[in-house]
Recover the amino acids of this structure.
């Protein structure tokens, strides 16, 4: 019902504190151990390069030669990372590594919730049967993508074993019991934040940033 | 990524973006179909009913295979041997099937517009697998997809649709789909089998099959649907074959090599001779192969949408 007599309290709006914003800005760092200055950039170009070199060396250390191993990058964003790793490993060992790309869209467990994902190309030009497969993705969060990836991988054969390499491990946010074997950097994040890895190949500068969404 | 529609009733209702999305998704499914394990677990929680009030071989097997490759549960229903012969109505039949918790309906019906009617009465997504003489959207999509696979982008390409245009639902879906992709379409056949005012759809009309073959890049030859012709529209099948049939001799006499398509089932020796249907210009079996991938794409894209709408 519309009121015709003016209400003396009409223009009074109590000041509301946005606790969520306050929490994100100040408390999250003290609780989750993040330095406010590092909030934007987790890894800059130089640091990212060092991390990539370390991960590639760790891979070579564990596998020595790759005749029975294979690298499989996960579409869409994991392949930029796996492309780099494959390139560096090739520089170290001097030989070509079996390298494939895997799309997991049709193996997701959330087909009915929300918008559908755009499927990308799957390209595995070798048999995974009895190979040591290294799955590579850029950011590990809930672990559901990796669950789907393992399902998809098994459809191509029975690998000898499967390892996981991620550039960023958002720890304490797993919804499934999945652990990476090679980790670029572990970060503590809250659910509203997003970690984005940018690559020169996609027209950005090499860096890893943390965004508040 | 989703379609702009909740049901696939006709290509008329799709936009070019939807068609591109379906093709792109079909590309990925085609890749899946070439793997040793041709199955993905995407729709393991979905149940699909194939309701066929009219006979079908290809479409029905193709849909069923597409559903099974997506790991959906499938139930098949055909009008013969069901309670439809006891007089049950369409809505009652479908509602009873849906009461058993079915998520999607694939329907073929002899009445044009039946899927639209059903869409107004039920919640589940509907895919039209052919309604009377109106549309057969998945056939239109797989035809355009097969042409594109063979010729590349269809913009400016010349497509001839030859035969029984009047009674064909494939013709209408083809026309809508090809025009949305920017192709030029000519329909050809005897005047009695070409509907009046079809030019209003923006297609050219010709009664000279030879001339049309010389003009086109692709000839999609349609079946003479004798079961729908309630009065004689041409004197004999032999006469039809002589004047409007496509054969190898005609194709060899052309200056160029054109692509021959047919949605099946073929009346061999009537609209298409055996040597043309089985020749190297024919992509009839590629059409059938692509049919599964296209149907997987459509089912996948609609199954996401159905839940979002709730």
């Amino acid at each position: 019902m519309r009121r015709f007599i003016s209400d003396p309290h009409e223009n009074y709006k109590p000041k509301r504190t946005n606790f969520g914003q306050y929490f994100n800005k100040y408390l999250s760092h003290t609780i989750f151990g993040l330095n406010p200055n590092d909030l934007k950039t987790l890894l800059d170009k130089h640091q990212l390069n060092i991390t990539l070199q370390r991960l590639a060396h760790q891979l070579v250390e564990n596998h020595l030669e790759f005749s029975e191993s294979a690298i499989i990058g996960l579409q869409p964003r994991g392949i930029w990372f796996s492309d780099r790793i494959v390139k560096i490993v090739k520089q170290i060992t001097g030989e070509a590594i079996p390298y494939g790309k895997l799309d997991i869209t049709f193996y997701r467990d959330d087909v009915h919730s929300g918008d559908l994902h755009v499927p990308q190309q799957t390209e595995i030009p070798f048999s995974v049967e009895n190979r040591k497969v290294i799955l590579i993705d850029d950011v590990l969060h809930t672990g559901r993508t990796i669950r789907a990836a393992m399902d998809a991988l098994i459809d191509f054969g029975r690998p000898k074993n499967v390892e996981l390499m991620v550039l960023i491990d958002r720890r304490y946010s797993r919804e499934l019991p999945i652990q990476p074997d090679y980790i670029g950097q572990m970060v503590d994040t809250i659910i509203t934040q997003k970690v984005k890895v940018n690559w020169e190949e996609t027209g950005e500068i090499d860096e890893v940033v943390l965004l508040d969404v | 990524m989703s379609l702009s529609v909740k049901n696939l009733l006709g290509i008329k209702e799709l936009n070019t973006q939807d068609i591109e999305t379906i093709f792109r998704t079909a590309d990925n499914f085609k890749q899946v179909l070439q793997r040793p394990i041709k199955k993905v677990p995407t729709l393991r929680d979905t149940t699909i009913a194939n309701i066929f009030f009219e006979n079908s071989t290809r479409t029905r097997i193709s849909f069923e295979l597409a559903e099974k490759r997506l790991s959906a549960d499938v139930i098949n229903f055909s009008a013969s041997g069901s309670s439809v012969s006891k007089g049950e109505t369409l809505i009652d039949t479908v509602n009873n099937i849906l009461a058993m918790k079915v998520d999607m309906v694939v329907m073929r019906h002899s009445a044009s517009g039946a899927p639209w009617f059903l869409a107004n009465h039920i919640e589940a997504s509907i895919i039209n697998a052919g309604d009377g003489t109106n549309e057969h959207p998945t056939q239109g999509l797989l035809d355009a997809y097969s042409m594109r696979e063979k010729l590349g982008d269809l913009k400016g390409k010349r497509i001839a649709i030859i035969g029984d245009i009047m009674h064909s639902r494939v013709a209408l879906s083809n026309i809508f789909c090809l025009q949305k992709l920017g192709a030029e379409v000519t329909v050809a056949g005897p005047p009695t089998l070409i509907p009046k005012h079809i030019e209003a759809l923006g297609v050219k009309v010709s009664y000279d099959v030879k001339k049309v073959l010389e003009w086109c890049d692709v000839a999609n030859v349609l079946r003479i649907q004798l079961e729908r012709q309630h009065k004689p529209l041409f004197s004999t099948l032999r006469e039809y074959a002589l004047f409007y049939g496509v054969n190898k001799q005609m194709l060899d006499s052309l200056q160029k090599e054109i692509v021959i398509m047919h949605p099946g089932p073929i009346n061999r020796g009537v609209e298409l001779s055996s040597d043309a249907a089985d020749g190297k210009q024919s992509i009839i079996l590629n059409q059938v192969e692509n049919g599964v991938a296209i149907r997987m794409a459509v089912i996948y894209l609609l199954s996401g949408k159905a839940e979002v709408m709730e």
Observations:
- The CA atoms of residues 109 and 177 of chain B lie 21 Å apart.
